[in-house]
Write a structure and sequence with these properties.
homotrimer, alpha/beta, 306 residues, Rossmann fold, four-stranded parallel β-sheet
Chain lengths: 306, 306, 306
Amino acid sequence: MRLNHIIESQQFTLPTLVELFELTDRMEHTHARGGTQDYHNKIMASLFYEHSTRTRFSFESAMYRLGGNVLSTERANTFSSVAAGETLEDTIRVVGNYADVIVLRHNEVGGAQRAAAVSTIPVINAGDGKGGQHPTQALLDLYTIYKGVKTIEGVKVALVGNLTDGRTVRSLAYLLGKFDRVKLFFVAPSSFQIKQDILDYLTKHNVWFSLESDLKKVLPEVDVVYSTRIEPELLTQKGERLETISKYFIDDNILKLMPRSALLMHPLPRLHEISPSVDSDPRAAYFRQTRNGVLIRMALLVSVLG
Amino acid sequence: MRLNHIIESQQFTLPTLVELFELTDRMEHTHARGGTQDYHNKIMASLFYEHSTRTRFSFESAMYRLGGNVLSTERANTFSSVAAGETLEDTIRVVGNYADVIVLRHNEVGGAQRAAAVSTIPVINAGDGKGGQHPTQALLDLYTIYKGVKTIEGVKVALVGNLTDGRTVRSLAYLLGKFDRVKLFFVAPSSFQIKQDILDYLTKHNVWFSLESDLKKVLPEVDVVYSTRIEPELLTQKGERLETISKYFIDDNILKLMPRSALLMHPLPRLHEISPSVDSDPRAAYFRQTRNGVLIRMALLVSVLG
Amino acid sequence: MRLNHIIESQQFTLPTLVELFELTDRMEHTHARGGTQDYHNKIMASLFYEHSTRTRFSFESAMYRLGGNVLSTERANTFSSVAAGETLEDTIRVVGNYADVIVLRHNEVGGAQRAAAVSTIPVINAGDGKGGQHPTQALLDLYTIYKGVKTIEGVKVALVGNLTDGRTVRSLAYLLGKFDRVKLFFVAPSSFQIKQDILDYLTKHNVWFSLESDLKKVLPEVDVVYSTRIEPELLTQKGERLETISKYFIDDNILKLMPRSALLMHPLPRLHEISPSVDSDPRAAYFRQTRNGVLIRMALLVSVLG
């Protein structure tokens, strides 16, 4: 499989996803053998316009596991000391002469698309703007479900927390909608529910979904619980009571309601959504997600570097 | 060829330049083959006292193409958490025990010279202070002319923009003056013209030059146009009218005045000096310059590392 | 020898120290040969919650000399762009999926211990908090004495400067106390003397020590002078006169009082404790210390990576 740029979740068709996950499985073997030196002549540029050490480390770890080299900045907005105001496009064209692939974290929606339009080397979107895309996060989430549940077809997933603003949840719902017989439970206070555009997409593709507010009711029925943060400051802004947040908190007691083989996922950082006492339960999959993130990114780098 | 420290343009004699460019040509082949692993046991320290991600990436890309490793900081002024105020000399001696070559960006004129005086390993100046030297930029500019025009002897170059303060232009004029039958056109508003010290140097070495203010008049006659920024805030400070800047702006119409085989160069970042519509013209050489920057720096690293 | 985490000086028994120094001697040969590629599949994460480029570079240089790769941040407190407030424990578990060893610089005493408690990969403490531990600094100091004096047993060491707050001096005193017939001279103004807990430890282990304030008196008697900074602002805070500082300043005249084979050490950065005119004297060992720092860290990395 050969991909060009990795810009948004929407570019992945079902066959591409299947092929990507097969490649990711092979990366797992490469990783277990301690990596390769296949890319010892390749350079990845981490071009970050905002700090996101987690995502940066994950990509750089992937590149090192492939034997490659890394140029790295989390201050791409000060790319030159001479003058501020260089366009993203010019910076991308310059970096194209320094590296073989660009991993771009931009602060504006559409930044990755603009970069890809002018780049002479592959661009991978590592997040662009608050409402923008973060496709590699969605892919690693999907891959974690695939590895944990053994299949995606027919999987029942509860998406929990702030579903209105969370790009992670929106992208994941979008990707899950591509698979047959998936059931999605959107579990959130009413003012944090998923937006209509995603529901329209799911309806159009005949995906079963249900809007819920009671987490306890949903838990026994699902294969996967995907928890995300509800920001306390947003709660009061939207006129919800602060206690509402506790209804979505997962501790040992709540965990007991989940099937024994279910997965508890979270995009991290986890603040007050999941009790650390749950971490040692085999269902807690959030740290495994970060491991899968390295594997998915290895596969994506291989796909674009050839 | 074996160099010790790379501190200033003045240290390069004509034979050294010729030898350096031959080595750079060989680096182009190395680069095309995807690099080497010749320096897999070598460490380059990027010691930057100010942010300049472009220059840093260019050097680090060069070191990776040679197979080497990189220590990197753009906050060398906080070299220790214990106390501020360590001398540059002490820092350099310490880094000499961590690396095999230091690439130094310092914020004071003469910083590179001070570093070289005490360093146990080679120091390469990556810019020292506003009025200081940035020899590798001048060398990559010269190499771009050499590759684009096929020769430097007899070349006709228009240097355009803020020639008073631009260290890039001053260093390039200095290096060009070493070659036979070169003709230099300094094109700028009168309050931004090149300083007398450069003119004295050119006169002394019998280099032909001309002071101009009308870009359109000069364009048809030259092999190379080297455009640089005139800062709008300086214009008003120096009592020039803001519209003056538009007389040095290069767009498709202005480009038509240049010979078909001429080169349009710029040290970047480009803000309002050159229209992006010009980028796809084969004469636009500014992105090629950044590629040549990696090659020149590979050659310089090889020269000092042996 | 196989170590797990490197957290504090106290974990090193006398036999472990001896074994570590033998391994460090072998690293010196590896280093002299230009390093190895033994760890080309290994990744070290430099996870720094505060800036300390010197320590970071030293560890990263060690990892590169072993052929390994490095993930690096000096802004670990902004590990995620999504939200502040992730626990150290969660960050450590995540990084455990990106790397094979974590070098941690934390801003709180006990940070390294907390990290080691949850980490799935080895953690090396690169300093935790003002009053905390910095065991690799103490080890490189001890190794420098071992190499310079040829033995540690029976060595006579003057520890000079701010002994109350200096964690370097406290850790070194602790480690020296493990060896037979060592004599320690604590040389400081009375309000900067070593604390009672260290003296109790030395008494318990039958280590000879003496509290002194006159540097000139002590110098002729010792094999090693370990100088540290007395912060001028602390002097006045503690009611000492500012001139006191000059009594601990070492220049050419003071140096003459030291035996010809003695060592003058300093943890660096050196500000006003030692005159630069002394640097070229063979007794000046402070830059050699930084070289030994790389060797010790190579040995420690080998010990934990296996």
